[in-house]
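FORM 7B: Structural annotation worksheet

SECTION A. Query
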Amino acid sequence: MSLSTEEFVVIGSSDPIVAVLGGSITLPCHVSPAMSVENMELRWFRSKFSEAVFIYQNQQEQREELLAQYTGRTSLVKDFLTRGEAAVRIHDVQAFDNGLYTCFFRKGSFYEEAGLELKVAGVGSAPQVHITGPEEDGVRVVCMASGWFPKPQVQWRAVSGEKFLTFSETQAQDAEGLFTIEATLVVRHSSSGNVTCSVLNPILGQEKEVAIFIPEPFFPRSSPWKLAFMVILTVLMFLLLGAAFYIMREHTAKHREIQEWEKLQRDKEENQLTKEEALKARGNAGQGSW
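SECTION B. Predicted structure
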């Protein structure tokens, strides 16, 4: 299918564009077939047409409809407009710049658009690690880092390189959308020695880490009295179970004896009653013969 001289297709980047916090980034689009876009209306916007990031119309920038967050932070790269290539540059990239964009090109009554994805990433502070206190069976260590975007990945490792898989994690975002993360680990073996907390940006692949040494005296020691108490408690439990079993058995035997005695009494009473009835019947028969 061929396009008329007024028609074109707008093409954006097929891959996500990565931008670093505080830096600058361009969102490029071009038309096919190649033609000048100097006299076209060019617009970059977010999820809605009215949420404009940059507007170029009548060969000049239009600022009236721009989102307040982008005022003074966007500009048009004009070097290749005659070749059908245009790009908007965003300066001082912020966390809220992260997401989807649409570039819109209009010539007369004909228009086309294309989508772009911007991934914002930022490396924050180095993690701060400190011991917060003993636990029942170990030492509690906390790692905290702030100013990261997007949410970073936290990992605890032993001096041997082995990863700790069980730890708690909390996160929060500040007014600028940056993440503060706190990860709490309970180290249960003094042999672990040094433990390392690493924080990784999943988009940039950049990592910051800090190690801390936990002295052996910080670990709670097992008391011999505690061990003796556990042994005594176990023995008492077995004794109680044995006593309960003995009492139950004695109760069952006693109940059986009572049942047997009651049965003998009933049999005895029935035999006595049978004898009395037989004697009575015999007496009545003798009176009849007189």
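SECTION C. Observations
DSSP finds one helix and 18 strands in the chain. The CA atoms of residues 81 and 235 lie 90 Å apart.

SECTION D. Sign-off
Analyst initials: ____
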